[in-house]
Structure formats: structure tokens, C-alpha cells
């Protein structure tokens, strides 16, 4: 965006795959389709090359981890170079023995690795036992420089925290990107499921508004069962609903909950600047009064 008057972004809403080979085959097809639409920047869901294994705690799943230069990264690098677009992908990173991360990788259109973001906020909830697998990131909230602009890449659970989005914006991020794997507990009724989905969309639209930035949330969809010998009739229903929003939080394009979708949207850099001029939230911040935000909680006397 810093070097383009407009940015064409595509989000790949997809299901989980039982094998990495299947995911690579699918990815090549969808990247080729995105290229026909003039895509400059492609965003993939969280852990797109594998099933969502943190539904359960099983040491066998550590075998899915790979280094930064592993096969998933190599596949993304080749596709970025072949189709001349910046690609944001996701891996279960094996950094060292006993040290693993949930990491987003950004590849330049040359195929070079532009940067890494390691998920900072790690959930530990029924169906989302990520603390068993992932060490919190240690790279902070820093945008990644690319030929299409400075990308504020965050991952899934990060999307609920306004501090993360703000820190990206304060360091010059030109768009917020959220690769995601989130869904419903099938024991919740329809009303509860709708409340959760509405909250997820609303909090991200709020980040776009408060920071005057466009935002893309790219989620997986479909039902993924717990593997045998666990309760294979149980699992998570990932809710899709990927979307791209403008800098006023307006939904520009939105997927449904029940199919693979390639969302594509052109973003106008001039419009983003005009929104920030009209709604100068960064100008009017009272930073001298915000020191207590660094506290975990403010105990009342």
C-alpha cells in the first residue's frame, strides 16, 4: 500500500486438510485463481496446512511441526514467486527441541521470507488447548515490511485484544491481518453461537475503526472431529465468515459459514488517509494518562 495506489487483497476461506500434501494441491489452485483477479496480497487461515490439532492434547501431534524453512514454507515461497504476490501463511513452528510456536510467515513476491510473526496470546479453552503446543511469541507486535506495504499480522486469539492492533498501527501498519481458526461448540444453542460470531466480527471491526485501518480476517470452515481413539463424534464446527473491512469498519466483502471462498477486494490508499484525517484518533490520544494500561489489573482500595 505504501508503494501502490490500490491494493488487491484475497482471503482464502478453506477447510482443514488431513494431509499437508492435500493442502498444497488446493493452495496452488486457489493462488492461481487469485492471480487472475490481480491479487497483490494473499492471506491464508491459521494452521491452514493441517487439521486443527489443538482440539485435544496429544504428543503425537508434535510431528506436524516444522522449521521456518520446512515444506510448507517452501511451498508458499514458490507460489509467491510464481504468481508474483505477497503471501501470508501459517505453520506449527518447531524452533528447537521442546520449543514450538504458532507462527505466521510472510513471503515477498520474489519468494523471499519478508518476516515472521509468532502468536503472542495463546488460548487454553475446551477445544482450543493451544498452551499445550505453543510457546507465546517473543517478537512483539511489529509490522512486516513488504512491497505492498507494512503488514500488521496477528493470529486468531490476538484479534480480541485492542492493544495488539494499536501497537501495530502506532508502528506504521497499513492493514491489519488476522489468520484465524475459530468455531462453535456444538453443545451451544443457536442463540449463543450467534452471539459469539457477532462478538468476533464486532471486535475486529472496532480495531479497524479505532486505528483507521483496513482489516482482513481469514477463518477456516467445516466440522473437524476429534480423532480416534478420542470421542470421534465430537469436534469443532469452524464458522468461516471471513471478511475484509475498510478503515471505518465497514464490511466490504464477507463469506458465509459453510463453503470454501476466495474473497477479493481492492483497497484505496487515498481513502484510508482521508478517513484518518476525518477521524483523528491517533492525534487525540492522551498518552500521558495511559501508563496504568501496562498493569495486569488495577486493584481497588
If you had to describe this structure to a student in words, what would you say it looks like?
By secondary structure, this protein is α+β, with helices and mostly antiparallel strands. The protein has one domain: Carbon-nitrogen hydrolase (Nitrilase/N-carbamoyl-D-aminoacid amidohydrolase, 4-Layer Sandwich). The strands form four sheets. A six-stranded mixed sheet has the order 5-4-3-2-1-17. The protein has a six-stranded mixed sheet with strand order 8-9-10-12-15-16, with helices on one face. Strands 11-14-13 form a three-stranded antiparallel sheet. Strand 15 and strand 16 form a beta hairpin. The longest helix is centred in the middle third of the chain and has 22 residues. The protein starts with 5 loop residues before the first strand and ends in a 23-residue tail after the last helix.
Main traits of this protein?
six-stranded mixed beta sheet; 17 strands; alpha+beta; 301 residues
Distance between the termini: 48 Å
Level-2 CATH architecture: 4-Layer Sandwich
Strand % is 25-35%
**CATH homologous superfamily (4th level) name:** Carbon-nitrogen hydrolase
**Structural class, judged by helices and strands?**
alpha+beta
**Number of separate strands:** 17
C-alpha Rg (nearest Å): 19 Å
State the shape: globular
CATH topology: Nitrilase/N-carbamoyl-D-aminoacid amidohydrolase
Q: Roughly how much helix do the residues carry, as a percent range?
A: 10-25%
Major beta sheet, strand line-up: 5-4-3-2-1-17
Amino acid at each position: 500500500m505504501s508503494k501502490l495506489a490500490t491494493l488487491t487483497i484475497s482471503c482464502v476461506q478453506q477447510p482443514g486438510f488431513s494431509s499437508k500434501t492435500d493442502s498444497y494441491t488446493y493452495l496452488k489452485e486457489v493462488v492461481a485463481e487469485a492471480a487472475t483477479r490481480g491479487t497483490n496480497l494473499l492471506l491464508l487461515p491459521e494452521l491452514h496446512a493441517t487439521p486443527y490439532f489443538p482440539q485435544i492434547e496429544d504428543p503425537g501431534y508434535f510431528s506436524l511441526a516444522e522449521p521456518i524453512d520446512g515444506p510448507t514454507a517452501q511451498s508458499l515461497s514458490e507460489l509467491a514467486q510464481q504468481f508474483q504476490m505477497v503471501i501470508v501463511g501459517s505453520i506449527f513452528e518447531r524452533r528447537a527441541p521442546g520449543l514450538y510456536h504458532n507462527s505466521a510467515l510472510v513471503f515477498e513476491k520474489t519468494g523471499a521470507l519478508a518476516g515472521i510473526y509468532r502468536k503472542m496470546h495463546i488460548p487454553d479453552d475446551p477445544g482450543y488447548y493451544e498452551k499445550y503446543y505453543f510457546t507465546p511469541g517473543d517478537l512483539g507486535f511489529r509490522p512486516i515490511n513488504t512491497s505492498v506495504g507494512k503488514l500488521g499480522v496477528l493470529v486468531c486469539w490476538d484479534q480480541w485484544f485492542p492493544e495488539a492492533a494499536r501497537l501495530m498501527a502506532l508502528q506504521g501498519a497499513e492493514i491489519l491481518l488476522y489468520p484465524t481458526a475459530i468455531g462453535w461448540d456444538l453443545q451451544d444453542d443457536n442463540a449463543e453461537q450467534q452471539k459469539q460470531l457477532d462478538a468476533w466480527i464486532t471486535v475486529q471491526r472496532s480495531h479497524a475503526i479505532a486505528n483507521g485501518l483496513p482489516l482482513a480476517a481469514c477463518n477456516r470452515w467445516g466440522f473437524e472431529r476429534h480423532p480416534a481413539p478420542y470421542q470421534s463424534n465430537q469436534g469443532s464446527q469452524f464458522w468461516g465468515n471471513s471478511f475484509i473491512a475498510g478503515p471505518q469498519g465497514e464490511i466490504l466483502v464477507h463469506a458465509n459459514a459453510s463453503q470454501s471462498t476466495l474473497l477479493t477486494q481492492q483497497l484505496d490508499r487515498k481513502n484510508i488517509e482521508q478517513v484518518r484525517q476525518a477521524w483523528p484518533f491517533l492525534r487525540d490520544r492522551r498518552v500521558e494518562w495511559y501508563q496504568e494500561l501496562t498493569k495486569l489489573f488495577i486493584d481497588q482500595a
